[in-house]
């Protein structure tokens, strides 16, 4: 970020006072030209399927077989569409509920039908973090902490149906067709836990040993209590404590919420900056 700051100083978009940087009038004007809602240029149009003769709008969409021309409700970023517009999802728009009938990411179109239902949906997704390099090691007690570039991928593979009355789970559903993951590159930090933590949570009777190597970790599924219990809980704790030591909001950070067999770094505690 220092190189970017130096460029902004030369363009008189920032000014340096002591050790602090402040935006100039020119810098504020330039910042206002950037729309945070347009970070992802790939958009998905949400089209409502209606019976023939019910659509009097002049939207630029073709009629579908047995139906009138769909009504375009809105558009959203492709990444958001994967989490909200998967087939079978309940989609809310202006206080009305719709059920998603199809999602075509390649053509940027999702079709929905107006329905009143007694459930809502939540995506079931798997997030993988790939460490692309490491630097800036720091020893914290018996832990070794590292930072470096990461590639994050997230794929939706199903969803939960939950009651709108009491929030209870109704059904666990799988997507009929696999959805391609979306990915982005960012920076993050991770900690290598002491050897005994991994061994003791897998088997209380096992002697202390070295933590698994990446190749060994990817060859079998890490224990549930260690990865999806202990590690994930600590990750959320660190995310919420981060604002005490760095200028950020917990929502700016993410962690590896799911761990599956084959995840190379499943036994590490990882925190990454959300970006993309």
From TrEMBL:
GO cellular component, one term: nucleus
Region (Disordered): 200-223
Protein's GO biological process: interstrand cross-link repair; nucleotide-excision repair
Domain of life: Eukaryota
MF terms (GO), sorted A to Z: 3'-5' DNA helicase activity
UniProt-recorded name of the protein: Uncharacterized protein
Organism field: Chrysotila carterae
Phylogenetic classification of the source organism: Eukaryota, Haptista, Haptophyta, Prymnesiophyceae, Isochrysidales
């Amino acid at each position: 970020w220092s190189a970017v700051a130096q460029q902004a100083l030369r363009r008189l978009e920032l000014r340096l006072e002591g050790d602090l940087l402040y935006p100039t009038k020119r810098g504020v004007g330039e910042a206002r030209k950037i729309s945070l809602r347009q970070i992802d240029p790939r958009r998905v149009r949400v089209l409502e399927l209606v019976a023939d003769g019910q659509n009097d709008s002049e939207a630029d969409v073709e009629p579908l077989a047995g139906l009138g021309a769909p009504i375009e409700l809105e558009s959203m970023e492709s990444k958001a569409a994967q989490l909200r517009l998967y087939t079978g999802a309940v989609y809310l728009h202006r206080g009305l509920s719709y059920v998603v009938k199809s999602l075509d990411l390649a053509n940027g179109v999702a079709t929905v039908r107006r329905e009143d239902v007694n459930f809502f949906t939540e995506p079931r997704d798997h997030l993988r973090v790939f460490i692309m390099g490491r630097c800036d090691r720091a020893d914290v007690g018996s832990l070794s902490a590292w930072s470096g570039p990461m590639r994050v991928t997230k794929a939706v593979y199903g969803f939960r149906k939950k009651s709108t009355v009491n929030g209870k789970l109704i059904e666990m559903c799988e997507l009929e067709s696999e959805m391609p993951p979306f990915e982005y590159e960012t920076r993050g930090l991770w900690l290598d836990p002491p050897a005994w933590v991994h061994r003791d949570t897998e088997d209380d009777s096992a002697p202390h040993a070295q933590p698994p190597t990446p190749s060994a970790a990817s060859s079998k599924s890490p224990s549930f209590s260690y990865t999806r219990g202990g590690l994930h809980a600590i990750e959320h704790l660190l995310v919420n404590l981060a604002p005490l030591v760095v200028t950020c909001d917990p929502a700016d950070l993410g962690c590896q919420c799911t761990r599956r067999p084959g995840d190379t770094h499943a036994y590490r505690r990882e925190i990454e900056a959300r970006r993309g």
